[in-house]
Specification:
The complex is a heterodimer of chains A (287) and B (700). Chain A is an all-alpha fold and 287 residues long. Chain A has helices at 3-16, 18-47, 60-70, 75-105, 113-157, 162-196, 201-244, 249-284. Among the domains of chain B are: 32-263, tricorn interacting facor f3 domain (Immunoglobulin-like), CATH 2.60.40; 549-563 and 591-677, Immunoglobulin-like (Sandwich). Classes of the chains: A mainly alpha (287), B alpha+beta (700). Chains A and B meet through helix 2, helix 3, helix 4, helix 6 and helix 7 of A and strand 26, helix 8, strand 32, strand 33 and helix 13 of B.
């Protein structure tokens, strides 16, 4: 199989399980609505009756800023609320991740919400543990990043113009992303092996490391190609949103729909990553 | 009304004429009571200065002066217990200065003698004039004179000094072989008759105060350096043997002297040709506003010098365009630029010296990646050039009343950039790349943004506060820059363009080459406007009061055809007689009548004078409009309307005169609200939250 066929296979697997993206999108929407509710309520109270003529006294964004600055005391309790909320989300996301992997890897393409939840329950504990075991790898990631970024930092510190500072800052970001993809690939593979091979956590980590030792370059290359595609499509989407988005009526509606469509795209991209990794694993596990 | 206008114009004209002569007198060199002769060599390897200074100071007061106080500003960077370093440490959120390892800077006087050779070093001691004695602060040196200096007497002092350039000080510093040298020589404070020396310690939240003087400076640097300085270059001597070059600069009637040297500068010169920059129509229009003739406001040509880092050379014309606009508008509004040159410096990389003003020289600051619609270098250029007028020429005490230059100059900057460029987009960058390429930030005028960001500090400190006594750096900067500018914009709107323009020009020319205080500004405002506006300064400058008037509620109900209860038609003598009676039969047309009550509230403490009421404009669905006036002396007021239509919109202060109002969102009412804008904002926020959650989900 070549690069395109792996990506196609992953995409097909994601597409036939499109319902998963819809479930996740709905859940994320509900969570986002909940998290945004206090701010939304504040804005409605402050600006709900604002009269905005065709040529307003100041742009609406400044009214927004004014309302937020005038209610600064609101942000400390809101930050507290977000902290608790995100702690809950962390647990929920482990559960949803388990459901997502479970349904993506099943041979049965028909997805129901019940089965999605069942997979979440089934693999929740193992997924949670896989995260804990991942912590030392995270430390290795941070260590490697600091080592590899050190020459860039030195270059920036010695610079006599802005360019080395900007370039090194961007290279550091690129380095962090590239390194992270390596470790994320490992975590994804561990989960695929746990589900596909019904292995326990530590044997799954060992198998994943063995598999990566043999297939790292090709699989990482695939991962990066797909990642690049997602970035390019995202940039195009941003451009489209900037060109077509309006500040009134149908323009706003279109913009909001475009925003939600983008989220579904991102979810589908996540599914495609899993599908592609699984497809590659199936093809090379015997090697 | 017309008579008043004529009187106003004549008065302004008289003031201006008197001031013009005052200005000429103030500019005469022979009257200068302070003369500096400076010689300095920069040792680039050690970042040291070796300097000699001769100061000739004449006592022009009626006091007998027993001592001289000197600023030794660089000692603020000498240790982490200097007054400035301690103030910097107290800043919780943002601090512009952090003392770093091996970054220290200092200045040391090695010899101080009178012209007769008497050594004054034993009579010198460090003092802390601004508070409890700080033994670690050496930014003010008091030197006792052998005998008090009588009125009219002159003293000549010869000083040798050494100084270490701070690595990254405030407004001065060096990085590799790029240097920006400011506040670097021993500088006397300002002697005020009857009050003694006005000479403050170096504070975190303060700039400077000094007397007008004539400067002559010889600056010796390695020949590879490109040099710029205050005043005019009159001589350049190269010494090939030592590989050093000495530049001589002179500056007349200026109160500070800064210079810069870097091998990475490109030096470019252009001319501001007044006849090309200002059209006869513009002269005519401005002359009419000011009540002068076009000849009286003619501008001179000015030589513009730009020292720009090579990495920014593509922006040369962008720099000059902004400078041209500044010279033009400041000149037309406040009076011609009186010096032959202006030097604009794109400061050496990482010297921490961007965005600062010195007489006839200022630093801007830019970036290698710039967007056209973000007025990032332009606003700084206009602002710092503007300080040549506000602080450079009208030299208020920045320690004590910083708003007088920062506030007036921020107000002026906004006006220039609005006229020359229109609104600019907010700068947003990620990893050095402008986000405006992807997401368009809103285009805003300077006064709009300044008003909004300064609202939160309205109740923290009064605008007129000594700079080091503000609650924190944020309160200092937002109050003296933006809140003061917002108050001035409000005054302009309340008084009208003509009166306001005359006030500003009169104030500028009255105090050109002098040291005005807030009361001087108030006096000019009251005299030229012919009104007592002291209440405005009391409310918005001398007190930390919030001004917030708004529409608290709009209630509309259908007027009932009949009221319930017992109405017995007994004769009454109250004031309601003659008005519509409750039991009056409805008209045959059966027209629906709506009773609307609008409640206005004054949420903040500050209030306008009764002579300056706020206007309320109410538009109804039938197209009719009602106006009411509210003096806002009470905390609230209700206004009732009976109309055959509901309210469509209601606006308090619809002309937007009261920019000091800290919450404009409650100044208007529409049953429909802002509609799509609010939906889009809420939708965007939810979308951002979704993306954040999805990213988190993807990471786990």
């Amino acid at each position: 199989m070549n690069v395109c066929s792996y990506i196609r296979s992953g995409f097909n697997r994601a597409l036939v399980r499109f319902r998963l993206a819809v479930y996740l999108w709905l859940i994320l929407l509900a969570l986002a609505l909940l998290a945004a509710a206090p701010v939304n309520s504040l804005l409605r109270t402050q600006l709900g009756h604002l009269y905005l003529p065709e040529k307003p006294f100041q742009p609406f964004e400044l009214y927004l800023l004014e309302a937020l600055l005038a209610n600064q005391q609101f942000f400390a309790p809101y930050a507290g609320f977000l902290l608790v909320f995100l702690s809950f989300c962390l647990l929920l996301f482990v559960f949803l991740g388990a459901g997502l992997f479970g349904r993506m890897l099943t041979p049965d393409p028909v997805v129901t919400f019940r089965e999605f939840l069942a997979d979440g329950c089934r693999y929740f504990w193992r997924f949670g543990l896989s995260l804990l075991v991942f912590l030392p790898f995270l430390a290795v990631f941070l260590l490697l990043f600091r080592l590899l970024a050190a020459p860039l930092n030195l270059w920036a510190r010695q610079a006599v113009t802005e360019w080395p500072v900007i370039i090194s800052s961007n290279l550091r970001m690129l380095l962090a992303i590239l390194l992270w993809t390596v470790f994320k690939l490992l975590l994804d593979l561990v989960r695929i092996i746990m589900i596909a091979e019904k292995k326990k956590l530590i044997p799954a980590y060992a198998a994943a490391l063995r598999f990566l030792r043999r297939n790292f370059i090709r699989l990482w290359g695939l991962y990066l190609i797909l990642g690049l595609l997602v970035v390019l499509i995202s940039a195009l989407w941003l451009l489209l949103g900037r060109l077509l988005g309006g500040s009134a009526g149908i323009g706003v509606l279109f913009f909001l729909l475009l925003c939600q469509a983008y989220l579904i795209f991102r979810l589908l991209a996540r599914q495609t990553f899993i599908g592609m990794e699984y497809s590659y694993y199936l093809n090379h596990r015997g090697n | 009304m017309k008579k008043i206008k004529i009187r106003l114009g004549t008065k302004a004209l008289l003031v201006l004429t008197a001031l013009f002569f005052g200005l000429i007198l103030a500019g005469r060199a022979q009257d200068r009571h302070l003369v500096y002769d400076l010689k300095v060599e920069l040792l680039t390897e050690t970042a040291m200065l070796n300097g000699q200074e001769t100061i000739v100071w004449t006592n022009i007061t009626r006091d007998y002066v027993p001592d001289i106080w000197f600023h030794l500003y660089w000692n603020a960077f000498k240790n982490e217990l200097s007054t400035m370093a301690q103030e910097a440490r107290r800043e919780k959120m943002f601090s512009r200065y952090r003392a770093g390892k091996d970054d220290w800077g200092w200045i040391k006087i090695t010899s101080l003698t009178t012209a007769s050779g008497k050594d004054l070093m034993p009579a010198a001691s460090f003092i802390s004039p601004d508070g409890p004695h700080n033994p670690h602060d050496q930014t003010v040196l008091r030197v006792e004179l052998p005998e008090p200096l009588a009125p009219g007497e002159t003293i000549t002092l010869n000083i040798d000094f050494q100084a270490k350039v701070p690595r990254n000080g405030l407004r001065t510093g060096y990085y590799k072989d790029g240097f920006f040298i400011a506040q670097w020589f021993p500088k006397p404070g300002v002697y005020e008759e009857g009050r003694g020396w006005n000479c403050h310690e170096y504070h975190l939240n303060s700039e400077f105060f000094a007397d007008f003087a004539d400067f002559r400076a010889e600056i010796t640097v390695p020949s590879r350096m490109v040099v710029g300085a205050c005043g005019q270059e009159i001589e350049k001597k190269e010494d090939p043997a030592s590989g050093k070059t000495t530049y001589t600069y002179v500056g007349k009637n200026i109160h500070d002297f800064a210079w810069t040297a870097s091998p990475r500068f490109i030096k470019v010169e252009r001319w501001f040709r007044a006849d090309e920059e200002v059209s006869p129509e513009e002269y005519q229009k401005m002359a009419e506003i000011l009540g002068l003739t076009p000849e009286e406001i003619k501008l001179p040509d000015v030589r513009m010098i730009l020292l720009i880092e090579k990495q920014h050379q593509k922006q040369i014309e962008r720099h000059f365009k902004a400078l041209r606009a500044a010279i033009k508008y400041y000149g037309l509004w406040y009076g011609p630029y009186p010096y032959p040159t202006i030097t604009m410096v794109d400061p050496p990389f990482r010297t921490g010296s961007g965005g600062m003003e010195y007489p006839t020289l200022f630093t801007a600051g830019t970036s290698v990646i710039l967007e056209k619609e973000v007025l990032s270098p332009e606003q700084v250029i206009v602002h710092e050039f503007g300080h040549g007028y506000w602080y450079g020429m009208v030299a208020n005490n920045e320690f004590e009343e910083a708003w007088l230059d920062e506030g007036i100059n921020t107000y002026s900057t906004g006006r220039v950039t609005d006229l020359a460029y229109g609104p600019g987009r907010l700068p947003m960058k990620f990893k050095g790349w402008p986000l405006n390429w992807l997401i368009k930030t809103p285009a805003v005028y300077d006064w709009q943004l300044g008003r909004v960001v300064s609202n939160p500090v309205a109740t923290l400190d009064p605008i007129v506060t000594e700079s080091w006594k503000f609650y924190n750096s944020m309160s200092y900067s937002m109050n003296v820059y933006y809140r003061a500018a917002t108050a001035l914009h409000t005054l302009e709107r309340l008084l009208g363009e003509k009166t306001w323009s005359r006030i500003m020009r009169a104030y500028h020319l009255s105090y050109r080459f002098r040291h005005p205080k807030t009361e001087n500004f108030m006096k000019v405002v009251n005299e030229v406007s012919g009104q007592n506006l002291s209440w405005f300064f009391e409310e918005f400058f001398f007190n930390a009061k919030d001004f917030d008037c708004g529409i608290a509620s709009v209630e509309t109900r259908l007027k009932p055809e009949k009221y319930r209860g017992i109405f017995d038609d007994l004769p009454t003598k109250n004031s309601d007689q003659g008005k519509e009676q409750p039991l009056k039969k409805p008209s045959s047309r059966k027209e629906k009548i709506y009773q609307t009550t609008i409640t206005l509230r004054r949420y903040g403490q500050a209030k306008p004078a009764p002579a300056f009421p706020l206007k309320l404009k109410v538009e109804f669905e039938d197209g009719s409009t009602e106006w009411r006036a509210w003096d806002a002396q009470s905390r609230w007021a209700r206004f009732d309307f009976e109309k055959p239509a509901r309210v469509k919109t209601a606006c308090l202060d619809p002309e937007g005169l009261w920019l000091v109002d800290s919450n404009l969102a409650n100044n208007s009412y529409s049953p429909r609200g802002p509609g799509a804008s609010l939906q889009a904002a809420a939708g965007s926020f939810i979308w951002m939250m979704q993306n954040f959650l999805l990213t988190l989900f993807g990471l786990l």
